[in-house]
Amino acid sequence: MDELSRRKMLLAGGALGALGALGSATPASARSAWNWAASGSVAGAGAPSDPQWVWDDEADQVLGAVIERGEVPRVNELLRTWTRNDQPLPAGLPEDLRQFMEKARQLPSWADQAKLGTAAKFNRTKGIYVGALYGLGSGLMSTAIPREARAVYYSKGGADMKDRISKTAKLGYDVGDLDAFQPRGEMIVTAVKTRMIHAAVRNLLPKSPGWAETSGGQKIPISQADVLVTWHSLPTFVMRKMREWKVRISPAESEAYLHVWQVTAHMLGVRDDFIPATWDAADAQSKQLLDPVLGRTPEGVKLTEVLLDIVAEIDGGLSRPLVSAFSRYTLGDRIGDMIGLSDEPLWEAAIATAWPLLVAFREGVIPLPLVPEAAWTIEEALRKFILVFLSEGKPIHLEIPDTNRPG
Ligand code: HEM
């Protein structure tokens, strides 16, 4: 297909599905047939469609048109001023984009402010676990998700990982903020911008030779199944680990933490009939979507190295072995090996002994004298890491890309 007809097809919106379907001749992933029941979704029902063949038609079409008209730099300039949930959209946006954004910024009818409030408090009290797990668990796990690693590597942001990490971490920070979805918060803005960035990437990456050669037959990146895979590497994984670590979580907190991520999935453009309604439904979906796709890719290994180098910059490399060991402890050796984490037997042994005791102390189960000295070194390193990772307080602007990674 020549470039012009390909673009026309992309711009045809619904055609994204058709194009993606062309990829079905080559299995894009090893996962089994989709049989997750929509009765377990927040919608409660739905046509039994496979999210592997669903993208985000409306967003993809509008962003395709904005790119085609060469309006991305102007739109990014205008959107820099749009930061708070309650702020009107800036004047001067292209009309089709403005209409899309007005719709996309509406919270779903099922969003429950009381639950969102409980989630915000939970994120604050359990911040050390949640922060460490997002950064050293989910963040590094993303490099073992082949489609994500490759999309990130070959997209514009792949060339400047430091910048990308702080931008991605903005979502982790905003979602856990006390005001996240409140008028004063920033999470609606962050989610809508992210949805638009993903839509831009769907229009751009198919033109990247590096991506096209490694996409395993997928013709359009970031399907709804892909977004759900990443989603499970975030809340589903984090909740599972916190339970394993015996962190005290009340049923209301557990439900609220799920809720804040359900709302986030909706705001990122995931269909309600794909969003799990309960942790059981989430675990079942995660088994079907996330577990089978984890794997080693050269791009993922390179990204892990870059990520750990960035961590090493915090203290001249001193805590790099500790961070590697903590990630291995969190993700397990299988994923640790996949992404090329170094083996740190001394630190790994220290963490395996000290971390459960530190958690037990923080959760009020054991008294202070039972916590070994090493636990505080680990906690201190994690705190430093979380602070840098979340770039707290720094203004960070998410920008729509209009090119792929150069070269
Ligand atoms: C950009 C979050 C799923 C690929 C972003 C950004 C955020 C984000 C906050 C903006 C950061 C930046 O501009 O650098 C999320 C969340 C996801 C998700 C919360 C799921 C719950 C995915 C998936 C893929 C993906 C499944 C690919 C398979 C990308 C790419 C960019 C991006 C390529 C753009 C980087 C660029 O500008 O070059 N995502 N993402 N994301 N995301 Fe995602």
Automatic annotation (TrEMBL):
InterPro entries: Lcp-like (IPR037473), MPAB/Lcp_cat_dom (IPR018713), TAT_signal (IPR006311). Pfam families: MPAB_Lcp_cat. Keywords: Signal. The keyword Signal applies. The lineage of its organism: Bacteria, Bacillati, Actinomycetota, Actinomycetes, Kitasatosporales. This is Oxygenase MpaB family protein. Residues 133-352 form the ER-bound oxygenase mpaB/mpaB'/Rubber oxygenase catalytic domain. Residues 1-30 form the signal peptide. The keyword Nuclease does not apply.
